[in-house]
Write a structure and sequence with these properties.
It is found in: Cytoplasmic vesicle, COPI-coated vesicle membrane; Golgi apparatus membrane. By secondary structure, the protein is mainly alpha-helical. It contains eight helices and no strands.
């Protein structure tokens, strides 16, 4: 049974293979659904994070962006401050827990993935597994 074409296949493939610059360069995909556009943007911003361009992500994602993109921005903020691990994680963790507790957005797979990444960095593996186990994606 053939479904609709996966417009993000090449972008995902480049990202998963670690070809972050190729993912960024080939991300101009027209006519995406709103959900696909958010997923595309999250993959592009996560590529920038993987390349160490945290400040670019922080500057480009504003407060009106969708919650999954806000979560990606939170990851960039978290990773950009390796020396300030007292102040940043408290606000990061409280924001994540607030979003995850919200029934309207708490089941978003991108949000759950970002939560898993941050909780893993915090060495809170039970919390990381709790949120990624029910994420619904292969990531």
């Amino acid at each position: 049974m053939a479904g609709s074409p996966d417009h993000l296949f090449n972008l995902r493939n480049n990202f998963y293979l670690g070809s972050y610059q190729a993912a960024i360069n080939n991300s101009d995909l027209p006519n995406l659904s709103p959900d696909d556009a958010v997923e595309r943007d999250s993959l592009v911003y996560r590529s920038y994070i993987a390349l160490g361009s945290y400040q670019l992500v922080i500057n480009e994602i504003d407060s009106s962006a969708a919650t999954p993109l806000q979560a990606v921005k939170l990851l960039a903020l978290y990773l950009s401050n390796p020396h300030d691990k007292v102040k940043v994680p408290e606000s990061t963790i409280s924001s994540l827990k607030e979003w995850l507790a919200d029934p309207a957005i708490g089941n978003n797979p991108i949000l759950r993935l970002i939560a898993g990444i941050i909780f893993t960095h915090e060495e809170d593996y039970n919390e990381a597994l709790k949120h990624t186990n029910a994420g619904g994606t292969m990531e």
